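Workshop exercise sheet. Pairs work together: one partner reads the sequence aloud, the other fills in the structure field after running the prediction. Swap roles for the next sheet.
Pair: D.N. / O.F.
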Amino acid sequence: QVQLVESGGGLVQAGGSLRLSCAASGINFDIYTLGWYRQAPGKQRELVASVSGRLSTNYADSVKGRFTISGDNAKNTVYLQMNSLKPEDTAVYYCNAHHLIWPRNDYWGQGTQVTVSS
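Structure field:
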């Protein structure tokens, strides 16, 4: 059974940093893409960053140069280091695991709130 548990959200001032963690169980990192999505009030959920095959990373243009996704294979945990935070980064952040093999199931964590004050 796949389980994703996020932590690390909170309130931070603009320009500050936060690190989100996603503890994953029941998955093999080699055959999943692990990603962070976010959803702000009134907006669609959007991809923030993802890592596939432990090496290939992808970032939304809005976070390039500020956010870094990484993984700790020993702990089965994926991190999102967020620096130079802006008020527009305020959202609920969700961890996602996308299975690369058919039927390509998607799994989601419960979400963690990130609020950036100006």
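Discussion prompt: The mean pLDDT is 94. What would you look at next?
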